[in-house]
C-alpha cells in the first residue's frame, strides 16, 4: 500500500511575514493516512521549521549536488538538513525551461538528496507540442530513466515522481484523470523494466498541473496516482488543508 502524498510547491511566493500568517492557520492540522509536504522558498525554511508541527513535512524546491563550494546562488544538502528539510523537488519544468536544468543535473541532484537522507520529488512531463506529436511516453520515459540512473533499488522504492504535463502547470488546463493515470502507469512500467515490478509497485507517483480542491479527488481515485504536486492552490491555507483532505 502506497501512502498518498500531497505536496505544495509555493514557487517564488510568500515573504517570511506571509509564511508566518499561513502557518498560524494550519496549526494542529493533520490527516490520517496522507502525507503532506510544503515546498517553500529557501528564505522561508527557517520560519517554517520553527512554526510547523510534526505532521507537515518540509520540502525545498531544489538541492545542489555539492556539500560546499564555489556555487554562487546554490543551496547544499547540508544546509537543507539543518533546516529539517525531508523532501526536495528536483527537475521542475520551470527549472528545466528557465534555468538550464538537464536530465544529467537532475540525476546528480537526486543522488545528492539520497546521500543526505532527503527524499527527491522528481518532476517529469511533456510540453504541449510533444503531447500533440504523440511523444508524451517517449519524453517521460527518457526523463525517468535519466533521473534514476545508477540508483539502488532501495532508493528507487523511496522516490517520489511527479508527472506534470507542462501545458497543465499554472494554466488552469488540467490533464484528465484517466490520461494522467495512464501516463503514470506507464512511468511505473518504465521503472519495472529498469528494476523489477516490486520496486515499481513501491514508488509513489503524483500528478501535478492545475490541481485544486474541486478536482483533486478525481485524480486520487485513480489506481496509479499516489497524490498531487500543487502550485497555485497550495498558497491559501484553507485550500491547502482541503487538498490534503482529498478535496
Ligand atoms: C507546480 O508548480 O508544480 C504546479 C503543478 O503548479 P499548478 O498547480 O499551479 O499548476
From TrEMBL:
<dbReference type="GO" id="GO:0019563">
    <property type="term" value="P:glycerol catabolic process"/>
</dbReference>
<keyword id="KW-0597">Phosphoprotein</keyword>
<comment type="pathway">
    <text>Carbohydrate biosynthesis; gluconeogenesis.</text>
</comment>
<dbReference type="GO" id="GO:0046166">
    <property type="term" value="P:glyceraldehyde-3-phosphate biosynthetic process"/>
</dbReference>
<comment type="subunit">
    <text>Homodimer.</text>
</comment>
<dbReference type="GO" id="GO:0006096">
    <property type="term" value="P:glycolytic process"/>
</dbReference>
<dbReference type="InterPro" id="IPR000652">
    <property type="entry name" value="Triosephosphate_isomerase"/>
</dbReference>
<dbReference type="InterPro" id="IPR013785">
    <property type="entry name" value="Aldolase_TIM"/>
</dbReference>
<comment type="function">
    <text>Involved in the gluconeogenesis. Catalyzes stereospecifically the conversion of dihydroxyacetone phosphate (DHAP) to D-glyceraldehyde-3-phosphate (G3P).</text>
</comment>
<feature type="binding site">
    <location>
        <begin position="231"/>
        <end position="232"/>
    </location>
    <ligand>
        <name>substrate</name>
    </ligand>
</feature>
<feature type="binding site">
    <location>
        <begin position="9"/>
        <end position="11"/>
    </location>
    <ligand>
        <name>substrate</name>
    </ligand>
</feature>
<protein>
    <recommendedName>
        <fullName>Triosephosphate isomerase</fullName>
        <ecNumber>5.3.1.1</ecNumber>
    </recommendedName>
</protein>
<dbReference type="InterPro" id="IPR035990">
    <property type="entry name" value="TIM_sf"/>
</dbReference>
<comment type="pathway">
    <text>Carbohydrate degradation; glycolysis; D-glyceraldehyde 3-phosphate from glycerone phosphate: step 1/1.</text>
</comment>
<keyword id="KW-0324">Glycolysis</keyword>
<dbReference type="InterPro" id="IPR020861">
    <property type="entry name" value="Triosephosphate_isomerase_AS"/>
</dbReference>
<keyword id="KW-0963">Cytoplasm</keyword>
<feature type="modified residue" description="Phosphoserine">
    <location>
        <position position="210"/>
    </location>
</feature>
<dbReference type="InterPro" id="IPR022896">
    <property type="entry name" value="TrioseP_Isoase_bac/euk"/>
</dbReference>
<dbReference type="GO" id="GO:0005829">
    <property type="term" value="C:cytosol"/>
</dbReference>
<dbReference type="GO" id="GO:0004807">
    <property type="term" value="F:triose-phosphate isomerase activity"/>
</dbReference>
<keyword id="KW-0413">Isomerase</keyword>
<comment type="similarity">
    <text>Belongs to the triosephosphate isomerase family.</text>
</comment>
<keyword id="KW-0312">Gluconeogenesis</keyword>
<feature type="active site" description="Proton acceptor">
    <location>
        <position position="164"/>
    </location>
</feature>
<dbReference type="Pfam" id="PF00121">
    <property type="entry name" value="TIM"/>
</dbReference>
<feature type="binding site">
    <location>
        <position position="210"/>
    </location>
    <ligand>
        <name>substrate</name>
    </ligand>
</feature>
<dbReference type="GO" id="GO:0006094">
    <property type="term" value="P:gluconeogenesis"/>
</dbReference>
<feature type="active site" description="Electrophile">
    <location>
        <position position="92"/>
    </location>
</feature>
<feature type="binding site">
    <location>
        <position position="170"/>
    </location>
    <ligand>
        <name>substrate</name>
    </ligand>
</feature>
Amino acid at each position: 500500500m502506497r501512502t498518498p502524498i500531497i505536496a505544495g510547491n509555493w514557487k517564488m511566493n510568500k515573504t517570511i511575514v506571509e509564511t508566518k500568517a499561513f502557518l498560524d492557520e494550519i496549526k494542529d492540522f493533520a490527516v490520517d493516512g496522507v502525507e503532506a509536504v510544503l515546498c517553500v522558498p529557501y528564505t522561508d525554511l527557517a520560519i517554517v521549521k520553527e512554526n510547523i508541527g510534526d505532521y507537515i513535512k518540509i520540502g525545498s524546491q531544489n538541492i545542489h549536488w555539492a556539500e560546499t563550494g564555489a556555487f554562487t546562488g546554490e543551496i547544499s544538502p547540508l544546509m537543507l538538513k539543518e533546516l529539517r528539510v525531508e523532501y526536495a523537488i528536483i527537475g521542475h519544468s520551470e527549472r528545466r525551461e528557465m534555468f538550464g536544468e538537464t536530465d544529467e543535473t537532475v540525476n546528480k541532484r537526486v543522488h545528492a538528496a539520497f546521500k543526505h537522507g532527503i527524499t527527491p520529488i522528481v518532476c517529469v512531463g511533456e510540453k504541449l507540442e510533444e503531447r500533440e506529436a504523440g511523444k508524451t511516453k517517449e519524453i517521460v520515459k527518457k526523463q525517468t530513466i535519466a533521473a534514476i540512473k545508477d540508483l539502488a533499488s532501495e532508493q528507487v522504492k523511496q522516490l517520489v515522481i511527479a508527472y506534470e504535463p507542462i501545458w497543465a502547470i499554472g494554466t488552469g488546463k488540467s490533464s484528465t484523470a484517466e490520461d494522467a493515470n495512464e501516463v503514470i502507469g506507464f512511468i511505473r512500467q518504465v521503472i519495472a523494466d529498469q528494476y523489477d515490478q516490486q520496486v515499481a509497485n513501491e514508488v509513489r507517483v503524483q500528478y501535478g498541473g492545475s490541481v485544486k480542491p474541486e478536482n483533486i479527488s478525481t485524480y486520487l481515485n485513480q489506481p496509479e496516482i499516489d497524490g498531487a504536486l500543487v502550485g497555485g492552490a497550495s498558497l491559501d491555507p484553507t485550500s491547502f488543508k482541503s487538498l490534503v483532505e482529498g478535496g
